[in-house]
Design brief:
By secondary structure, the chain is mainly alpha-helical. It has two domains: 65 residues, Severin, CATH 3.40.20.10; 68 residues, Villin Headpiece Domain, Chain A (Orthogonal Bundle), CATH 1.10.950. It contains seven helices and three strands; from the N terminus they run E-E-H-E-H-H-H-H-H-H. The protein is elongated. The chain starts with a strand and ends with a helix.
């Protein structure tokens, strides 16, 4: 948020703002001054205000923002935090990987999947050969079930695919 008091420009920065957001806010304030039809002095103070660190001089520009409003804002922040926590818990217990697509793919013997890409059956995506392994072959080669493999970081999956079958 940008607040122009005619003597200073306040830039209010939310807690979740990135460094890029902060950089852009300064750039926006400068552009705002440059395009001001009043032809203001470019040496005006630009003051950064961080969320929950608002000084009384800044809060004073919002006369209706009494203690009650601040308490409501704190309640909203707490509810957002609780919501995020509950959402994370829900997603952890209802992870989409519990309903894997692994079983929906046609299965092929390992020796076929080791063939060069141009000799593979048309239904096989060369980038996802592992999906065409049977459960037993997958566990035997990767030393873990597919659902566990699916939860690994993408780089780790790629590394394992190269090592195990030259899959990739």
């Amino acid at each position: 948020m940008l607040l122009d008091t005619n003597e200073s420009i306040y830039i209010w920065i939310g807690k979740l703002s990135t460094r890029e957001d902060q950089r852009l806010s300064i750039q926006t304030a400068i552009e705002y001054l440059q395009t001001d039809p009043a032809g203001r002095d470019m040496n005006i103070s630009i003051i950064h205000i961080k969320q929950e660190k608002e000084p009384p001089t800044f809060i004073g520009f919002f006369p209706n923002m009494g203690q009650e409003v601040l308490e409501v804002l704190q309640d909203i922040r707490k509810n957002k935090t609780r919501y995020r926590t509950e959402k994370c818990e829900y997603e952890r217990h209802h992870d989409k990987s519990d309903h894997s697509d692994f079983d929906q793919y046609d299965k092929y013997p390992v020796n076929i999947l080791k063939e060069p890409n141009d000799k593979l059956p048309a239904k096989i995506n060369p980038l996802n050969k592992e999906l065409h392994l049977t459960h037993d072959d997958f566990v035997s080669l990767f030393k873990m079930p597919y659902l566990q493999f699916e939860k690994l970081p993408r780089w780790k999956q790629q590394e394992m695919k190269k090592k195990v079958l030259g899959l990739h």
